[in-house]
Amino acid sequence: MSAQPLNPPASPYGADDGARIAVPPVFDAGFLGALDTLFAWRRDVRHFATRPLEEAAFADLLARAAQAPSVGLSQPWRLVRVREPGRRAAVRTIFETCNAEALALQPTERAGLYARLKLAGLDDAPEQIAVFVDPEPEAGHGLGRATMPETIAYSAVLAIHTLWLAAAARGIGLGWVSILDPVSVARALDVPERWRLVGYLCIGYPAELSDTPELERAGWEHRRPTGAFLVER
């Protein structure tokens, strides 16, 4: 399983202009198979071991997230590492309030199942990161978002997904908590008013591993084939 370099392409600018052309790798069948396995085993982790995450491993994940694509190369994501017990407790309280409201909205036939879908990450995960987006970042100079400003938030989502895959490849779990009030979380974490919450992440070593989503194993929902959401024109 390896990535073999190609022959360097000729510079379109000439041989003497000092331009540096990176040599792209060639990913072999073994690598592609492993990548497919990574996609299959990446999970939204809800149950974590309390084992601490090594500082070097955590820093490496953040470095991978920073390699995500972003509109106009703006890198608009803002990561808040939540470590203070008081702030964690505040986020936990916000979750409990929102979760109770969500449970009340469930139809009778699903309420019991919803109540059993425990989210223990906020209690056990050694690392918690709130991912915010700065809607008006200085970097990027506004490129690519004049007609679709929501691409700023999409960029933050790509950073989360990049981190997620990097974590899964290293045997580290990530759970995305979305049952939260964004304004309340922003206040609890004392961030700039213009920042917008995109996701709250629990990160650590999974208590269990499976290549099947927990929501599917619990009978909440099942993956659908590509034809269910593919439209051709």
From TrEMBL:
Keyword Transmembrane helix: no
GO molecular function, one term: 5,6-dimethylbenzimidazole synthase activity
EC number: 1.13.11.79
Listed InterPro entries: BluB, Nitroreductase, Nitroreductase-like, Nitroreductase/BluB
Keywords from the UniProt entry: Oxidoreductase
Keyword rRNA-binding recorded: no
Top EC group: oxidoreductase
Domain Nitroreductase positions: 40-205
A UniProt-annotated Pfam family: Nitroreductase
Name of this chain's protein: 5,6-dimethylbenzimidazole synthase
Organism expressing this protein natively: Ancylobacter moscoviensis
Gene that produces this protein: bluB
